[in-house]
Design a protein that fits this description.
199 residues, Rossmann fold, alpha/beta, 8 strands, globular
């Protein structure tokens, strides 16, 4: 299943061109993971692989969540698959980038009870800034962060930064080096990663 998912991620998500990353760094390749998380086959496989990584954590979390919108579709897919398979990680929560201005005026959608164990998820980790933002918000809301899982680690220092700040198991389904084509043809991309890591 993981090999099929890798093929789908490469064919759907890996784009070559001139891109500016969220860090401000420039790159000649980009992982547009929404093309996978909005594809039925790929999303089903993503749910299975995330649950596989969650099962490898020292403590299985009660809930899963992260920052909108890198975590939205992954979170929904995982909690649905968890319910189908009687897996304990069957609650989802999403951190907004800004407080909702109407209705409940929530900053965290489906805010969890204090003490709930949570695995924070994201689609791509570069420097880890967005993932850390979600983890801090959930921690401030009283949750216990027991792990961090992403779909793709761009290998730019973000995973190490997250591990250092939160002192939890940090895992990825894939790494940038699992997709060698742009790496072999793009020396600029490698220097961009070093720039992003220092941002």
């Amino acid at each position: 299943m993981r090999q099929r998912l890798r093929e789908l991620v490469e064919s759907l998500c890996l784009l070559e061109g001139d891109f500016v990353l969220s860090t401000g760094a420039k790159s000649q390749f980009y992982f547009d993971c929404k093309r996978a998380t909005l594809n039925g086959e790929a999303l089903a496989l993503i749910a299975d692989e995330f649950l596989h990584e969650i099962n490898r954590l020292p403590e299985k979390p009660q809930a899963i969540g992260g920052l909108t919108m890198g975590a939205d579709f992954i979170t929904a897919a995982v909690v649905m698959r968890a319910a189908q398979t009687d897996h304990p990680t069957n609650l989802g929560s999403i951190v907004r980038k800004a407080r909702k201005e109407h209705g409940t005026r929530s900053f965290i959608e489906n805010e969890l009870e204090e003490g709930t164990s949570v695995v924070v998820v994201d689609d791509v980790v570069t420097t880890g800034t967005s993932t850390a933002r979600a983890a801090r918000a959930m921690r401030e809301a009283g949750c216990r962060i027991v792990g961090i899982v992403c779909l793709i680690d761009r290998e730019a220092g973000g995973m190490e930064a997250l591990r250092g700040e939160f002192n939890v198991d940090v895992r990825s389904v894939f790494r940038k080096s699992d997709f060698p084509t742009p790496m072999q043809s793009n020396e600029l991309g490698q220097s961009d990663e070093r720039l992003a890591a220092s941002a």
